[in-house]
Amino acid sequence: MKEENRQRLLALFKILLHESDEEHPLSTAEIIDILKYDYGLKECDRKTIYSDIKVISEHIDVESTPKGYKAASFFDAYEIKILCDLLDNFKSGNEKSIARLKDKLFAFISKYDQEFIKALSLKHKMYGKNIYILEMIINAIKHQEYLKIKKDKKESLIIPYFLNLERYHYYLYYAYANKENKIYKLRIDRIESCDYTNEKHYFDMHYKECLKLISNSLNSYISGELEIIKIELLDMNKSYILTDLKENFEDVFIKEKIVSFKTTINKELFGFLARYGNAVKIIAPLALVNEYEEYLKAICKLYQPR
Q: How is the chain split into domains, by residue range?
């Protein structure tokens, strides 16, 4: 094989692998332009490209569509996402070595999946189950599609916006289809089942905007030491309180009217509980009871007549 042919085949292999995917097929004209301007290979025609793709198809899956050619990646996006999260939590590695390893992983997927995963990835701890649900969520986010989920024996149509790894668990930030501007948070191992809809939504939200909305809509309880909090539910008719607790806290345990859960003690926690008014009462730890009482007194003092 001539050196020129070898260079062209290698370049075409890289182009198909990195520049194309299911949503971004490449036409023959586009491939010729990339070979010419990015790789300096000017002597290419349609017949040559067709022959070269036939050779490359013996090693990777290349599909011909009416819009052009697309190659299947060696890994799915969700698989690379999991590996990147594991690397982010590898305490023995430094940032440069981890970045190099990520670059090696990204070499196996298209640039579009790379951009998607980089936008989706945040540094937190490791996770290890519900892979099929994770895969469906990532694909639904990637393709901007509605997702059907079942939790607490109820089915819902949701818009999955963002996925984040927090304290060993993945959390899904989502909106209901009929309330797209209100963000909810759900630990994915609490999803009983989920299913694709293959129906696109058109609520286009940039990841940075989504993060800002999440920050404004939900309180964060992931910093500091975890403590066991006990509260008493004084109004059992307000079932949404239990739902909120399950979606926002760790190790929620319910016995009659007493609910215990793990979180950090901060002003955000006070604000979270205060929204339920006299429907909940903190009963432990005692230090938190006293601190919460002072918090409420300070608020009441603002409205005392002068």
A: 3-71, 75-123, 125-218, 227-301
